[in-house]
Write a structure and sequence with these properties.
The complex is a heterotrimer of chains A (278), B (309) and C (435).
Chain A: H1 9-35, H2 54-58, H3 68-97, H4 104-116, H5 119-133, H6 142-165, H7 169-176, H8 181-209, H9 213-216, H10 225-232, H11 240-275
Chain B: H1 20-59, E1 63-64, E2 69-70, H2 76-82, H3 85-119, H4 123-134, H5 141-152, H6 157-164, H7 179-203, H8 207-215, H9 220-231, H10 233-249, H11 252-257, H12 265-274, H13 278-302, H14 305-308
Antiparallel strand pairs in B: 1-2
Helix pairs in contact in B: 1-13, 2-13, 3-7, 3-10, 7-10, 8-9, 10-13, 12-13
Chain C: H1 17-33, E1 52-58, H2 64-74, E2 77-83, H3 85-94, E3 101-105, H4 106-112, E4 118-119, E5 121-122, E6 149-150, E7 158-159, E8 174-175, E9 178-189, H5 191-194, E10 213-214, H6 219-233, H7 246-261, H8 272-280, E11 286-289, H9 291-299, E12 305-307, E13 313-323, H10 328-341, H11 345-351, E14 356-357, H12 360-365, H13 369-375, E15 385-386, E16 392-394, H14 405-409, E17 412-415, H15 422-434
Parallel strand pairs in C: 1-2, 1-3, 6-17, 10-11, 13-17
Antiparallel strand pairs in C: 3-13, 4-13, 5-8, 7-8, 9-11, 9-12, 9-13, 9-14, 15-16
Helix pairs in contact in C: 6-7, 7-15, 8-9
The chains are: A mainly alpha (278), B mainly alpha (309), C alpha/beta (435).
Chain lengths: 278, 309, 435
């Protein structure tokens, strides 16, 4: 914020604060990582009983109770479906809200209400509703709906923010050059807002992948990963849970690293294109 | 930056005549388009939010005994709930949690957002730092919750480190299974929900405004207080809504972090549900919903996020 | 039923079981009509291999090893889903179509069965019915036993008729749950940290263990732990600890609040795992505990004792129920599964973990003499005792805490229960938690 170039004292103070914050966020992650290397006899808490990679091997074997593979597949798939639907629905609704239409106020407040209603309630409500209607709840039907009531408000609020930063002059220019509305959206609007859309997608996936309360009474016969893990704690659980956590973290770093590399590559290409005047 | 809701209204002025015929067809569609576009959202919310909540509202008037639930229209559930001193005590306790969580998430969230928005200059770096903050959340919350025990417990990392450093002789007991632990977990879980919207608001602040304030001789604090804070209000409001509603409806964090020794409205509802006392749980839920709606309405009254978005 | 689509998860690749079912249902119907439904080898023995049954329950007994063995012995597929104990009750009642077999506890069964989501089982089709331990049929372990307080399993085991949801006072032809697993809980202690003999439930609130005690955080069960303590202290005399009056609830909760305010409790546990972690991390040195949880702590090389107390045990039991929607071939498969469950292999598996199985005779056939002696007769282990996974649990010469089956199950003071006043109880329990 000072004159460009030199960093002031406030920068270092704030950077230190941010560092502490990140350290705090990683507190459990660090604990999980250390304990995932427990010896074969070790438990979920300290003391360490030797060091080993036993639990990482164990993760891929059948557990006494529960099924990591199946529940992970379901959670991943559900997360991806929720992600896609959240982007699609929030984005189209975002376009709608750029114009005035009757009921827009009501819809907006309904969306905010969706955020406010406690998760347990949504879960119970949908569970009871499916029972009354005689429908069979499933992770891809009732649980999907329950997750959407959670991710859509987030998605919509972010989309609102995107469109407000978006300069309509680009669209006008496209229209003036004879582009159809569809072409305008596809070739002009979407590319510009793409990074923010990725944000919506990430949010949607993260919220769904880790959702517990909303899935509790809507999942049907088979568990999602959070439910499965919680179910597993009704018997002897082992540091295999921590091994799962450690692998997830490593995997997340990889995925995000790759995304970032892709993003930077795109930025560079764009910059080059702008520079060469295309 | 001060732009408000419909940003397209300005674009319909003069346009080349060759587009006119296409426009006429498009116009009839245009009237309907917003409705079509809003339809999926409306449908999802109708089916998975409005109808289930209505179901709960209906069930809250049903009767039940120790064996079964009886469709009926009675007010006993509300009567039991509202005339019990426990209810008020627990509401107060939950509000306390919400207030504490809000204060800390706001203080930390605002500072972090400030750093990211004004001190990290490249968008790529901002993204990197955000993602670094997101990664811990991809490990299942249940696992993270379990890991608080070896982190904060008597023989946990923190106590061992403090004892090792000679700061304390006896392990600190209040770190785990206490209200402190609950609030700590809330701050851990929800600060990012505060950071993101505040950051978003700050990113939209015109940098020349700040320069102008500085040129006029404002100190750093004055800029913070008179320029940045007011302009970050929409973000603060959205973040606050996130945090307050999340805390008000929570039951799992309270239960695990307090070791079952602290109550929230969520745990109260969960206790009812566990014994299949759905009508009682439903009545409790309806009251909770009204309370939270009231809180959010108050916040929205102070800051109209829709106008500012 | 056949228009339902499921099996999307793990078994996506399998043959559509519903499609096959339609074809085989007729055969099954004929067979059922002809009364040829006893024993394992049946006309549809081949078709039954295509059946998939979905079972859910807590992780205590929803073991993958059981599902594997079912596939091996019976040929059909059993899909196990483990949930926490609250979620089990919820799913049983609110999502009756999401399962075929429910593995629930007797006390909550008192509420689940009347919801009409399960169908009673015909005793005539239960091969080992006569060998089921009488706790579950007459309520008496031996003819002269006194029936313990609380929701004793036999009070919710029978209903009056095939379509009835009303519990019968005496055994009938229609059984609600087939007992699978049960046990007697007591205090678990860390002898290295407690430092004195523990003999009574009242030791839980000894000020010496301030900040190091715990009880169960399931309201209807936690309050019974507390009642055991109150009674041991002579503070309250209960008519029935499992069905308290409002005054008794008031006194018990007042006592709990007093103890909580004095800082006696470190935390309350809800899942098996929490009780193990509390104990092995040293957060808690004395708490109500399950026998296998004690074994799990010991398996980590940490001293832990399942301490018999003079007031007796608080017992619980679980059983398998059949979903109402089940019929035809699937229903027959369910009966076969239940008969197999009682035929010994599972019983031995559960006994080896420190639980008890419903038919002891058959379980005995699947256990070695040393195992039987150690787990069931309270004898010193003749050689090392192994867990079902093959790890050494107890060294040769060790004696099981609490002794023999008769010593433990014969000293049950009360069963986990649902009270008539449970609405009031929950309110008071909330008061305790909020205090």
């Amino acid at each position: 914020m000072r004159d460009t170039g030199r960093r002031g004292l406030s920068f270092y103070l704030l950077a230190a604060f941010f560092g502490l914050f990140v350290l705090f966020l990683y507190g459990p992650t660090v604990t999980i990582t250390i304990l995932s290397f427990q010896g074969p006899e070790g438990g979920l808490t300290f003391p360490m009983r030797g060091w080993s990679t036993h639990w990482f091997h164990n993760l891929f074997q059948q557990q006494a109770v529960g099924d990591f593979g199946g529940s992970f597949q379901r959670s991943l798939l559900l997360g991806l479906i929720v992600m896609a639907l959240t982007v699609l629905i929030a984005l189209t609704a975002g376009f709608a809200f750029r114009r005035r239409f009757r009921g827009s106020g009501a819809l907006f407040y309904l969306t905010v209400a969706s955020l406010i209603v406690p998760s347990v309630l949504v879960s119970l409500g949908i569970g009871l509703l499916f029972q009354i209607l005689g429908l069979e709840p499933n992770w891809w039907s009732s649980a999907l709906g329950a997750h959407l009531t959670w991710t859509l408000p987030f998605g919509l609020l972010i989309v609102f923010a995107i469109f407000n930063r978006f300069n309509p002059a680009y669209e006008e220019a496209a229209r003036d050059l004879g582009a159809t509305p569809w072409q305008t959206v596809w070739h002009v609007v979407l590319p510009i807002i793409l990074p923010s859309i990725i944000g919506v997608a990430l949010f949607g996936f993260t919220l769904s992948y880790d959702e517990f309360a909303r899935t509790l009474m809507t999942a049907g016969s088979f568990n999602t990963l959070p439910l499965e893990i919680y179910g597993m704690t009704t018997n002897v659980t082992t540091p295999v849970l921590y091994a799962l956590g450690t692998l997830t973290t490593i995997f997340s770093f990889l995925v995000i690293g790759l995304c970032l590399a892709g993003f930077i590559a795109v930025q560079r290409r764009r910059a080059r294109r702008v520079a060469s005047g295309v | 930056m001060t732009v408000s809701a419909p940003p397209t209204a300005s674009g319909t002025g003069a346009r080349p005549a060759r587009a006119a015929s296409r426009d006429r067809r498009a116009w009839s569609l245009r009237g309907w388009l917003p409705y079509l576009q809003a339809l999926p959202l409306a449908l999802v919310l109708l089916v998975f939010l409005v109808v289930p909540i209505a179901t709960i509202a209906v069930v809250s008037f049903w009767d039940y005994d120790s064996i079964r639930i009886i469709p009926d229209f009675v007010l006993t559930n509300y009567e039991w709930l509202l005339t019990s001193a426990v209810t008020w005590q627990i509401y107060l306790n939950t509000l306390k949690f919400a207030a504490l969580a809000w204060v800390f998430t706001f203080a930390i969230g605002f500072t972090v957002a400030w750093f990211l928005a004004f001190h990290v200059r490249s968008v790529t770096w901002q993204m990197v730092l955000f993602l670094v903050c997101t990664i811990p959340f991809w490990t299942s919350n249940i696992i993270r919750m379990i890991s608080w025990v070896p982190f904060l417990g008597r023989n946990g990392i923190l106590n061992s480190a403090l004892i090792g450093a000679g700061v304390i002789d006896q392990p600190l007991e209040f770190l785990l299974f206490s209200d402190f632990a609950v609030v700590l977990a809330y701050v851990h879980l929800y600060t990012l929900f505060m950071v993101v919207p505040i950051f978003n608001s700050m990113a939209r602040i015109d940098r020349s405004l700040i320069e102008a304030a500085r040129d006029a001789g404002a100190t750093g604090w004055q800029i913070l207080w008179n320029v940045v804070l007011p302009l970050s209000k929409p973000g603060i409001a959205i973040g606050s809504i996130f945090v307050v509603t999340l805390v008000m409806g929570d039951f799992i964090t309270v239960r695990l972090m307090s070791g079952g020794q602290s109550a929230s409205i969520g745990t109260m509802i969960a206790n009812d549900i566990a014994l299949l006392q759905y009508p009682a749980a439903a009545a409790n839920a309806v009251v909770l919903l009204l309370v939270v709606l009231l809180m959010v309405a108050t916040m929205l009254r102070l800051i109209d996020i829709r106008k500012e978005l | 039923m056949s228009e339902r689509t499921r099996d999307t998860g793990r078994h996506m690749g399998g043959i559509s079981r519903r499609g096959l079912l339609k074809g085989t249902a007729a055969v099954a119907g004929v067979a059922a009509g002809s009364g040829a439904i006893t024993g394992f080898p049946t006309i549809w023995a081949q078709n039954i291999k295509n059946v998939t049954l979905r079972q859910f329950g807590t992780g205590v007994s929803n073991l993958n090893a059981v599902a594997d063995k079912v596939k091996e012995d019976l040929g059909f597929t059993l899909q196990m889903t483990a949930l926490d104990s609250d979620a089990v009750a919820q799913r049983a009642v609110t999502q009756p179509k999401s399962y075929d077999i429910a593995d629930i506890e007797y006390w909550i069964g008192k509420k689940i069965f009347p919801a009409g989501v399960l169908q009673p089982m015909d005793v005539g089709k239960i091969k080992y019915y006569d060998k089921i331990i009488p706790i579950f049929t007459t309520g008496k372990l031996t003819p002269d036993s006194v029936i313990a307080q609380g929701t004793a399993p036999h009070t919710v085991t029978f209903v009056e008729g095939k379509d009835s949801t009303k519990f019968a006072k005496a055994p009938t032809q229609w059984m609600t749950l087939i007992p699978t697993i049960y046990n007697a809980d007591t205090l678990g202690i860390r002898p290295d940290l407690v430092g004195r003999p523990i003999t009574s439930w009242k030791d839980l609130v000894d000020p010496a263990f301030k900040g190091k005690a715990s009880i169960l955080n399931i309201p209807s069960i936690g309050i019974m732990d507390a009642a055991m303590v109150c009674e041991a202290l002579g503070l309250v005399t209960y008519g029935d600890k499992g069905n308290m009056t409002k005054a008794e609830i008031d006194k018990t909760i007042a006592f709990l609040i007093e103890q909580k305010k004095a800082g006696q409790f470190r935390a309350f546990w809800k899942t098996f795992d929490e009780s193990v972690n509390l104990m092995s991390s040293g957060e808690v040195v004395i708490q109500s505990m399950w026998s296998p949880a004690v074994a799990a702590v010991r398996a980590k090389g940490i001293q832990c004792v399942y301490q018999p107390l003079k007031e007796g045990y608080r017992a619980w039991g679980g059983g398998l129920g059949i979903a109402k929607h089940l019929s035809g071939l699937e229903l027959e498969a369910a009966y076969e599964y239940i008969n197999w469950y009682l035929s010994g292999w599972v019983g031995a598996y559960l006994n080896r973990q420190g639980y008890y199985s419903a038919v002891l005779d058959t379980a005995k056939e699947h256990m070695s003499a040393e195992e039987w002696g150690f787990w069931m007769e309270g004898k010193p282990a003749a050689k090392d005792i192994l867990s079902p996974e093959g790890k050494v649990m107890e060294k040769a010469g060790a004696v099981r805490d609490g002794g023999s089956f008769q010593d433990r199950m014969g000293k049950v003071a009360c069963w986990n229960a649902v009270m008539d006043e449970d609405r009031y109880m929950i309110r008071k329990w909330n008061e305790f938690i909020a205090a």
